[in-house]
Specification:
Radius of gyration: 17 Å
Shape: globular
Strand order of the largest sheet: 2-4-1-5-3-6
Helix content: 25-40%
Order of helices and strands: EHHHHEHEHHEHEE
Structural class: alpha+beta
Distance between the termini: 31 Å
Largest sheet: 6 strands, mixed
Strand content: 15-25%
Length: 189
Amino acid sequence: PGMYREGEYDLAGFGVGIVDRDKVINGRTVKKDDMVIGLESSGLHSNGYSLVRKVFNSKELKKRDRELLRPTRLYAKGIIALKSKVDIKGIANITGGAFYDKIPRIIPKGMAIEIDKYSWRVPTIFSIIQKKGGIEDRQMYRTFNMGIGMVVVVVKRDAERSIRILAQNGVKAHAIGRVVKGAREVAIL
């Protein structure tokens, strides 16, 4: 939504891959009582900056530039290691739309996910943004990753093992939720 001044630019990149159709992780095997593992983010990642620019004035943005511009954590190494040892039933990157729009895409019909918002420590920057901007919880979890950059769904018996495997590969993770019966939605409790 913001405009660049003359001489300013944005540089972005992406990757493309290929996977056999029968190995696509699309959530079709997600079942009741499966666990949701949240992989910690490194900060804001790439979402919510229009709102951040509304909340903070230019002096405040400059003061917090290190935190606000921290590079996005990438999860490839951790996910590859996890996939080699555990059946990942669903996976979602927590970007635009965050918890409420991204996670439902990996839930089959008749299922829902309950997220325990107290199961991980939300980085302070999100609390500052929320308080300073007078933003409701639901909007915060829709706009920002709140400290969780990606989620994977695994069977309950693999939850702790998944957290250990991710940690061994440089990714701190937490059991943050579970699959329940419902209408393909996410409830943050």
